[in-house]
Amino acid sequence: MSNKRGRDISSRLTEDEINGLVLRLQELLPSDSSSSCISIKDCKGDMQLHQELQKEVDDLSDRLSQLLASGDITALDADIIRRLLQQ
User: Fold this and answer.
1) Among residues 81, 75, 87, 19, which one has the least CA distance to residue 47?
2) Distance between CA atoms of 76 and 56, rounded to whole angstroms?
3) What does pTM read for this prediction?
4) Which sequence spans correspond to the domains of the chain?
């Protein structure tokens, strides 16, 4: 699954690798406008938030898989899950 592969890569990044990626990103951004300047702190915060959200998605996916596999699901639950997945 492509999400799993991306998740594996993001969980293996070290602090030094993140710093290196942020520095490379800053080099690619135009430096003539202060509004387009991104600080390392902001990038790190964004990456950390992304990793936390990805972990939540993974946890919810695991819980949903367990629920569906258990068979302990009502017709109402199935309908709610179906509607959520269609969004």
Assistant:
1) 19
2) 24
3) 0.50
4) 2-86
Tokens for 46?
Answer: 């964004």
Instruction: In whole angstroms, give the CA distance from residue 20 to residue 22.
Output: 5
pLDDT digits (tens, 9 = 90+) for 28-49: 776 655 544 566 677 778 888 8
> In the 8-state DSSP scheme, what is residue 36?
G
Q: Which residue has the tokens 């406008």?
A: 33
Q: Contact at 8 Å (CB) between 37 and 55?
A: no
CB-based contact 48:19 (threshold 8 Å): no
* Six-digit token string for 62: 């695991």
- Mean per-residue pLDDT for 9-21? 73
pLDDT of 17 > 50? The answer is: yes
Residues 6 or more apart whose CB falls under 8 angstroms from that of 36 comprise 29, 30
Pull the structure tokens for residue 65.
């898989």
Q: Which residue has the tokens 């390392």?
A: 40
